[in-house]
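[SOLVED] Need 3D model of a two-part complex

Original post:
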Amino acid sequence: MNLQATTSKKSSLFERVEQYLPQVTKPGRYVGGEYNQVNKDWHAVRTHVALIFPDIYDIGQPNLGLAILYDILNRQDDICAERAYAPWLDMERILREQQLPLYGLESKRPLSEFDILAFTLPYEGIFTNVLNILDLSGLPLFSTERDENTPLVIAGGQAAFNPEPMSAFIDAFVIGEGEEVILEVAQAYQTWKDSHRSRQELLEALADIDGVYVPSLYHVSYNPDGTVAEILPKSPQAKMPVIKRIVASLPEPLTNFLVPNVDVVHNRISVEIMRGCTRGCRFCHAGMVNRPIRERSVEEVIQAIDASLKATGYEQVGLLSLSSSDHSQIVQIVQEVYAHFKDARVNVSLPSLRIASFSVDLMDQLQELRPGGGFTIAPEAATERMRAIINKPLDDEDLFETVRAVFKHGWLSLKLYFMIGLPEEQMEDVQAILDITRRIQTEGRRIVGGRARINVGIGTFIPKPHTPFQWAPAEQPESIQEKINLLREGFKKTGIKMSFNKPTETLLEAWLTRGDRRMAQVIWHAWQNGAKFDAWSEQLNIAAWYKAFEEAKLAPEFYAHRERGLDEILPWDHISSGLRKSFLLQDYKWSKEGKTRPDCREQCYYCGILPTFETLRKGDPSANWRCP
Amino acid sequence: MNETFRIRLEYSISGMARFTGHLDKQRLWERTLRRSDLPLSYSQGYSPKARLSLASALPLGYTSRCEALDFWMSADLPDNQIQQALEFSLPSDIRLLKVEHVAKNLPAMQAILLSSQYQIYFNKSISQESLQRKVDELLNREVIQRNRRGKVLNLREQLEDIQIQCIDGQVYLFLQMSARPGATGRPDELLEELGIDPNTCLIERIKLIY
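Solution:
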């Protein structure tokens, strides 16, 4: 084989990149070529979209959302969708030293040559990476500095529900579910491109699409105390509010997943069995912003697994939802999955199970399909009082019954998730985490002896926009640290392993998730100060952020630790998840009274979803949202 | 039911596939075999794996025209049918060169492998004369001491043949190095001893010798 011939077809940019790849860790991150990758003739399509996960390949590649969009876009004859990820530090150093731009993994063309750069923002710790990627592509960071010759920069994902902190860097946000709106955005872009009009007209055309938020078409003013005074649309296309997009029923599931050639965080097929959740846990952003419930039928789940296994050769399947045991057909799903795939030599995981012995029975029915390892449950709080405040009611007796069922069914390892820093939380509630975990350990040992393993994951509560706790303050890092110390001391020499996040990590999330537009300056300064990969514990440079707040002349406490006034205009009030603010407020008040709100499949509490999406629901006879 | 069939594949690695490491390549092959829907034999146990065995680890970044693996099937099929099923399932940049049934009692290729041959192509141009000088100097050394992950070894003993070749005006280095278990010569180490940065070369394995 002539070695030169193998490289001659590739772009000259990649020829230069390739020389350096042997020097970086895991070069397979930067080369594409996965099974099921879609390669299109660059010149044969009109619109080139780069789907970008702003963290490393290992984390971004398994992302289901982007995989779905990749499939949808590439089904269009006149669109090609490629992928890009944040390069790890060693690769970034080489790209910068050699002045090589970041590129799409399929065509190996620089991102600056694409028409649309579409970022997903699943969490806030990824924000500075967006700036870094734009910079590595040689593109202006600020939306106002881009013109007709630079790509359109759009973003979506769960963290886009408060788009304001990133609003200076993103031309347009897609709020909510992307399956339909992404094609409308691409269409609007194509029409605009053919028209040779100004960039402003593109932005206006995008704002005209339901669910698309163009920050530059709004003016935000502030009160002397720093709170938002007014959010005003500046053009007729700018909607007030921008209501999230949803699909009436789940589209056909993705089956031709890309199969990476290097190890990634989740090596598996993901089948979404249900979207949305009716439980109404007050801390849970996903449970609030992803309403209503849409289920996938048993047949569709089975067909999706079957087709994906054939298309990928994967040996693991994850059945995804926010609350698997709440699917109305979950028993049938589990039975059918077992019947169809018991000889297929695959593992099937069923995460997000409710704490009930019923869930243990479900997992047990999967028998040899069950992945090895432990059982996981998330009581979130250790006292019934706290569980009422967060609206995750659970009797201790049910918890212990579940625990006993887990060990009796042969699991030896149990992982428990708890949160600290919840509203109204007292030291007794934290102490109770210790006590209840010890009691659970005792139960486990009584049933399976010394082999019982208990792991505890401690998360720190962060009040998220669009949830009933959006008004609540985040707890100060010092008192969070005290609570962590209490737990660490308490779990010493018990054989119980505890994992937790550093208070600084949660602090950053609290600033960013609750920020307004002015936070963009903080993000920009932080990036200038060297912040990137903030979601990586060992990379987080909190000093860079404190300095950034100073440079932007903003106070971090104002964003994180202040209870917001109940009549305050919140920075994200012009973005609607479909829930009424009065519903969230009532729920916040109920939490202070310790009053729970039952699962809304039993009774409607008028959260706002039905009136908001009435037309959509009526237009799709298959839409069954399980709303009474 | 317990009858198994042992199939030997020869394949090439080029392009992007050279950036997949050995462990990942094993996983890549397992998934390729699973996609092919051939009647694979699986290991026993909690998470059964398709029975397969790679002849030799190819260092990350190397291409190859002579890789090999054995896998086992629980039912028999003709070679051409196996070949067809696999070609459809392989990722780009891995090409099947040969498919054949082999006797089940043959020793593992890994165990009987003696040597590997490599051809090295230089990205940075190098004159034949200067390369010859470097090679001559190297061959004059009786001991080429290397430290590989804390273990001291004499690389000179693992070098079996070295030649400078000129094909169509292009200078290549041909190497044959020991590939016995516990005595695997690494071309990148040899290049370093020649004073050539291995990152500026493309190394291709061209033959496995048993």
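Edit: Chain A has a mean pLDDT of 95.
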